[in-house]
Design a protein that fits this description.
By secondary structure, this protein is mainly beta. The chain folds into three domains: 119 residues, Immunoglobulin-like (Sandwich), CATH 2.60.40; 230 residues, Jelly Rolls (Sandwich), CATH 2.60.120; 43 residues, no CATH class. The protein is built from one helix and 29 strands. The strands form five sheets. Strands 5, 7, 8, 10, 18, 19, 20 and 23 form an eight-stranded antiparallel sheet that branches. Strands 6, 9, 14, 15, 16, 17, 21 and 22 form an eight-stranded mixed sheet that branches. Strands 1, 3, 24, 25, 28 and 29 form a six-stranded mixed sheet that branches. The longest helix is centred in the middle third of the chain and has 4 residues. The two termini are 44 Å apart.
């Protein structure tokens, strides 16, 4: 993006805050005119009504991974590390110059992630009874193809094809031909396990852990109760929650979509945004908790008045939150026995945001919140009250000159259904002016 000079020290944006059905809030009040453009990195004032309050205005953490040098560990950004340290990388930025890269190319190494908080160091515990976190993720298997499987075609050993249960979706898994294939031997992945993968072998992992939040009170900081996971799993029929016991195992598991599920599936080779909000029950088993999950701007699941705390180890809070951090390097299908089939990955992450409330500001690509397929989270600054708040503009991957729409989400999840239009006018130029030359002292 082209650097632009600062046009306004502060821009007053006024939005009409519409309240979704089921919430009794005052009608919006527009109080001032609105400029037509904003600059990325600029502090902007948003005025209106119905914003609610935010006791701690700044998020717990926001990291776009643009700072630092190529190859630096993300630990230099204040993250704790699990497994192989993810690094600041110029290899595949979502925008700007960098992102975080998790290296799973060594098939003997299954962990590479960063996290915030901790249990064993009491000073770093997050101590949250509700958590919102959001980030972008890109999964890059090192073997890939754009060739769709065609049952009328012949294939040789080593050929790679894309396949799903209808045979025609390019956003699906890669399979490698193991035995010469002709049109008389149609491909049926559901039978390949039972054929010992004689004809075709999958080359994507069956189990990638895309995120986790936990009390950290189990055998390590990745476990404990309360806990939930974001996984891809072959044997589960779409997004669902699975409650567990308070034994430190994988309880409150959230599946991001199964092998054939069209919603919430984190297809490889595409940047996806994940958003999770969980409010813990007031006590174990109490049905006053909330769970909410967005994938690529779409709400995949929202559950209210449910039990989100099924048991307690010794601290009923979320104390740690994890980035994507695990690839199994193995693949199987429903009912498999985890056959060893090494697969290699790189995972890239960007714009990791953690907060203790879902109150936030977003900029989206559609004039209604429900129709947004691309949203960028904004960074709250020093003011948030019912009629006014401040944000630092995060343009993200929106292009210079693009029109986008501003949204405010309050702590109850209410949002202005119709966005306020804005236009991006480049990024803030923070370069210091050159020292003057040719001066003399009289």
């Amino acid at each position: 993006m082209q650097n632009k000079a600062l046009k306004f020290k502060s821009i007053l944006l006024v939005i009409s805050f519409l309240v979704l059905p089921g919430f009794s809030k005052a009608a919006p009040l527009i109080s001032a005119p609105t400029p037509s453009s904003v600059i990325s990195g600029q502090v902007v004032t948003v005025a209106g009504s119905g914003f609610g309050s935010k006791a701690v205005i700044a998020p717990i953490k926001f990291d776009d991974f643009q700072a630092g040098n190529n190859g630096d560990s993300v630990a230099t950004h204040g993250w704790e590390i699990i497994g192989v340290p993810p690094i600041i990388s110029t290899e595949f930025p979502r925008y700007g110059a960098k992102s975080a890269m998790h290296d799973f190319t060594d098939t003997a190494q299954w962990d590479s992630g960063y996290y915030l908080g901790g249990m064993f160091d009491s000073a770093s515990r997050l101590g949250l009874d509700q958590i919102y976190f959001s980030y972008y993720v890109y999964t890059k298997p090192l073997r890939t193809t754009s060739v769709l499987y065609n049952p009328a075609s012949n294939y040789s050993v080593g050929d790679l094809v894309l396949w799903n249960n209808t045979g025609g979706d390019s956003k699906t898994m890669v399979w490698e031909c193991q035995t010469a294939h002709t049109s008389s031997t149609p491909f049926d992945p559901a039978l390949e396990y039972y054929n010992n993968y004689t004809y075709w072998k999958p080359v994507y992992s069956r189990n990638v852990k895309y995120g986790r939040a936990t009390s950290g009170t189990g055998s390590d900081e990745t476990r404990g109760n309360p806990q939930f996971n974001l996984l891809t799993q072959s044997e589960n029929g779409g997004p669902s929650w699975s409650q567990g016991l308070n034994n430190g195992s994988d309880t409150n598991v959230f599946y991001s979509g199964d092998f054939f599920d069209p919603q919430g599936k984190l297809w490889p080779l595409t940047w996806h945004r994940i958003e999770v909000y969980v409010k813990l029950s007031s006590s174990a088993g109490a049905t006053d908790g909330v769970r909410q999950y967005f994938s690529d701007g779409k709400e995949i699941k929202r559950e209210e008045n449910v039990a989100t705390l099924t048991g307690i180890d010794n601290d009923p809070h979320f104390n740690t939150v994890f980035s994507p951090y695990y690839v199994s390097h193995e693949h199987g299908l429903p009912g498999d026995l985890w056959p060893v089939m090494p697969v290699q990955y790189k995972i890239f992450t960007s714009d990791f945001y953690v907060d203790k409330t879902r109150a936030r500001v977003e900029i989206g690509n559609a004039s209604t919140f429900a129709n947004c397929t691309h949203r960028e989270i904004q960074i709250p600054q020093t003011t948030w009250n019912d009629g006014q708040l401040e944000i630092k503009v995060n343009q993200g991957s929106f292009a210079d000159g693009a029109t986008a729409y501003l949204y405010v989400v309050d702590e109850d999840g209410s949002v202005n259904a119709v966005g306020y239009p804005i236009t991006f006018d480049g990024i803030l130029d923070t370069t210091a002016p050159s020292a003057p030359s040719g001066l003399s002292v009289l």
